[in-house]
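Bug report

Summary: structure tokens for Xaa-Pro aminopeptidase differ between web form and batch submission.
Environment: batch mode, default settings.
Steps: 1) Submit the sequence below via batch. 2) Compare with the web form result.

Sequence submitted:
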Amino acid sequence: MFQNFDDLSDPSCGAPHAALLRAELKRLGLDGFLIPRADAHQGEYVPPHDCRLQWLTGFTGSAGMAAVLGEDAAVFVDGRYTIQVREQVDMDVFPAQHLITEPVTEWLVARLKPGQKLGIDAMLHTVREVRRLREICKEAGAELVTLEDNPVDAVWADRPEPPVGQVMLYPTELAGRGSEDKIAEIQKAIQDKKADACVLTQPDSIAWLFNIRGSDVTHTPLPLSFATVPAEGKPSLYIDGRKLSNSVRDALADLTEISEPADFQGGLKTLGTEGKKVIIDPSLAGIGIAEAITDAGGTLVEASDPVLLPKAVKNEVELNGARKAHVRDAAAYIAFLCWFDEEVAKVELDEIGAAEKLEEFRAATGELKDISFDTISGAGPNGAICHYRVSRTSNLKIPQDKPFLIDSGAQYIDGTTDITRTLAVGTVSEEMKKHYTLVLKGHIAISTAKFPEGTTGAQLDTLARIDLWKAGLDFDHGTGHGVGTYLGVHEGPQRIAKTGHVPLKPGMILSNEPGYYPAGEYGIRLENLEIVTAPKDIPGGERPMLGFETITLVPFDRRLIVGGMLASDERSWLNRYHQRVRSEIGPLLAAKDRIWLEQATEEL
């Protein structure tokens, strides 16, 4: 199994670990310290070695921060984790605050006193973030102190070792482009900015650029590393040499100079002493990276990571790989759905059993490299926790007469998948059906959207919510995220969300996943992956429009749909989609699964 169900959270750790940290801060002459859920790469995927927030508080979510002062502390999470944080963290030690509406900056302004010193790890806070922190410290008459060594590490007695996962070469026949071509494109982007070099801090950017994949973090084939790319000449890759076999090292040596991570700061200082103009992404690069360059005499050029957009816009080879991966995944998923309908009626199935069986069906393809994230297998009230991770402690029997939410994905060598389905168990109420149908209407609105070039995800986000809003309902997460090619299941810069301000471009892959979560009761989420399609003329229209191609091919649960709530065009879309699932996936199924699919996709 690629997923384990050990309980990673311990709320009782909060008080003793906070005491250890406060003692260390006192020794260092600091009055407070910030602990983000981040590593030096500022990514979502953090190895156990860098899970400082979890060690301190017990919180295991993918985004958050803790603040510790002498007599006060808090943990900050966004809307996805407002339920989870209260279950995982001792609220007496770390009261929960909303990361967006009650940000850490406001909390600090209300508590910092003149003359106090607030510490941060220079590699764990971005340039943009530190600017704001310095402003609020100045406002309070306090001082922000950047540290090279993290005080949490000094008191974390059983801290795991850094990961040394092996690196593999990702073949050009799957990547669609050679690394030399990609490097030349990025160097052209550097020259266009009139810069001399750029610093890459994101492991997925580095993986894409050098056509490599790694195994340093759970479920995502990332090689944790840094890189610098000059406007001309060979890039430099800073990666633990233990991750490289002789053959991989030899292949990379033709593309880049290879150094150890310990040499990274020296490489930055060299750029500075040579007076180079260096591109950094202020929303991704730690302040320690920026200051290493500027303190040595270099100049910063602040701009987006130049790899993000080329990586997000998939070439045709990558898109074909994604389509093949989704066909393979759909056949496994539909076999699971057939099995689930038989088993759940026995009232013995639990959340872990469902997650394990779905992984078994995917593994049976013979192509599964990993799951793409811990399966969110949410029964009853656990389904209302958006990013719920089932453990042996939290594991529930799947109750009758409620929806069951399962959000999962797979890593195949040719593509990454992510799908959520909400399934009827027993006899569900009319209210549950109404909520499901409102979510489905939002899903269909995104899938069928037509929009001009330059449209952002923020402009589309309302389409997924409008029917929920009319009913006085909403959901506290984005509608969609980007997805990589055998890389991160969450990939930027594209998003369908209130914060999605990057124009959508043909070739981008995004999720489409509106939801609704009545706390303590159940959850509903419906997710497909979509490819942004090239502009096409619309009969009678004045300008060509982009749209979406759906690549997830798994039926929606008709037992949860109120047909009368769907407009005729929505019903037509659903029937066409189900017919496509039958025709494309049906022939790949065993006889029993094919019969189940025929019934599940009957015309509405």
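Above is the batch result. After comparison, the two runs are identical; trailing whitespace caused the diff. DSSP finds 19 helices and 27 strands in the chain. The chain has three domains: 11-155, 168-306, 313-594.
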